[in-house]
Amino acid sequence: MDMNELDHMQVKLEAALRQRLSEWEQAHPGNLYQPVVYALEGGGKRLRPLLVLLGYSLYADTWEEALPAALAIEVFHNFTLLHDDIMDKAELRRNRPAVHVRYSENNAILSGDVMAFLAYELLLETRSPRLPDIAALFSRTAVEICEGQQLDMDFERRTAVTTGEYLEMIRLKTAVLLACALKTGALLGGATPHQARQLYETGITVGLAFQLRDDFLDTFGEEVTFGKKIGGDIEAGKKTFLLTEALRTATPTQKAQLEGWLENPSAPAEEKFRAVKTLFEQLGVGETTLHRIAEYHAQAVDLLESLEVPAERKQPLLELTGKLVLRRN
Asked: What is the number of helices (H) and of strands (E) in the chain?
């Protein structure tokens, strides 16, 4: 499969989603479904459903059969974003008002709830003897994402979070859904249990690299290409890989300075960002982050290259993995 086929997948995926959105636009009560449509028509990378189709295409050509499962994962992902934005009090999502701002917080909660169940309805459209295994994987992934979100909220109330704790949190909150997507597609396509496990681990390493890249770009990226305000993590005092590594390697004086800025909610945002970024630069945590991203990327490539599948079938997934890890937005 060449990259033109990947483009074709993206077009088909978007068309299939648009068809569902047109159905939900007409659904009753409108106040329940309109926020669903609004959330899903806002765009996004469509990374997770694409991974389902790519996982399937490693083993079979009829990847259109995996579209319902791919849409299930995209709808579920967007459900988590609805609720995350409420908890984070985020006003924007993809450069538009977040659902709870555009409608109301109660609307966003209930519409998010229905999205979770719509995702399961889509998954159950899958025609495969492996559906019980896929549904179990989907359910376990959903539980783990909730665990990761709880850890993220717990970390907001803690001063000290280790790098290991942070990596476990993002494994649960971010990486497991990418892993679930790849494994779901592979199982539907006919992968052996061993091959499916390999792809799950590939998804985990890609997911970790993906989130660390996000952490890096939030401090060292360019606003024009990143697509959102730089410095949001520092302003909010969020625990990131950069921060946990900075606190781990800082001198007592540097650590006191970091904690002083992070524990001062009234500090001017721009001044706080410049001061913390300067400390990050002194400690070299940007380079540390890029090195760890490269390690995860190398692990993902090794896992894919060891997969017993013709090389030409793996190439689009290898190229997509590289784009995700090296992205600027």
From this structure: 17, 2
- Can you spell out the DSSP letters for 246-302? HHHH--HHHHHHHHHHHT-TTS-HHHHHHHHHHHHHHHTHHHHHHHHHHHHHHHHHH
Can you read off the two tokens belonging to residue 324? 């995700």
Domain ranges (residues) in the chain: 3-323
Amino acid at 53: L
Quote the CA–CA distance of 37 and 14 in Å, as a whole number.
13
Per-residue pLDDT of the chain (329 residues; tens, 9 = 90+): 555 778 889 999 999 999 999 999 999 999 999 999 999 998 888 999 999 999 999 999 999 999 999 999 999 999 999 999 999 888 888 888 999 999 999 999 999 999 999 999 999 999 899 999 999 999 999 999 999 999 999 998 888 899 999 999 999 999 999 999 999 999 999 999 999 999 999 999 999 999 999 999 999 987 655 556 678 889 888 899 999 999 999 999 999 999 999 888 889 999 999 999 999 999 999 999 999 999 999 999 999 999 999 999 999 999 899 988 888 77
CATH H superfamily, domain 3-323:
Farnesyl Diphosphate Synthase (1.10.600.10)
Structure tokens at 316: 């689009």
Residue of 281, 220, 274, 285 whose CA lies nearest to 248: 285
Indicate the pTM of the whole model.
0.94
- C-alpha distances out from residue 326 to 69, 158, 184, 223, 292, Å: 27, 31, 25, 16, 12
Which residues lie across from 92 on neighbouring strands?
97
Contacts of 187 (CB under 8 A, 6+ apart): 128, 130, 133, 134, 137, 196
